[in-house]
Design brief:
By secondary structure, the chain is an all-alpha fold. Helices cover about 80% and strands about 0% of the residues. It has one domain. The model has no long low-confidence stretch (mean pLDDT about 90). Keywords: Coiled coil.
């Protein structure tokens, strides 16, 4: 994903201006962003300070890393279960079942 050219403080300032009643079209024109970007930021960052925004980003990255680990472990478990199943069937066929 492309890194934003806006810092957390800039995003917080832009969202805060919208909360103060400045028209969204004016905010977007001055900042050089689309209204969709503004509303995405508002949904994600409304009421957060820049330090909280940084912490949120860190938590999202940690969550993504943990999800990847969980997916890898699930795949490993599935492969091991498949191997065990094959070994059981091989053992049973050798015994004449």
């Amino acid at each position: 994903m492309k890194a934003s050219k806006f810092s957390d403080a800039q995003k917080a300032f832009i969202v805060k201006r919208g909360e103060e009643g400045v028209p969204v079209a004016e905010i977007c024109r001055e900042a050089g962003i689309s209204q969709a970007t503004y509303f995405n930021w508002r949904k994600k960052y409304a009421g957060l300070m820049p330090s909280e925004m940084k912490r949120l980003r860190e938590l999202e990255q940690e969550n993504a890393r943990l999800k990847k680990i969980a997916a890898d472990l699930s795949l490993d478990k599935e492969m091991l279960q498949d191997i065990v199943k094959r070994n059981v069937w091989s053992a049973l066929s050798l015994q004449g079942f």
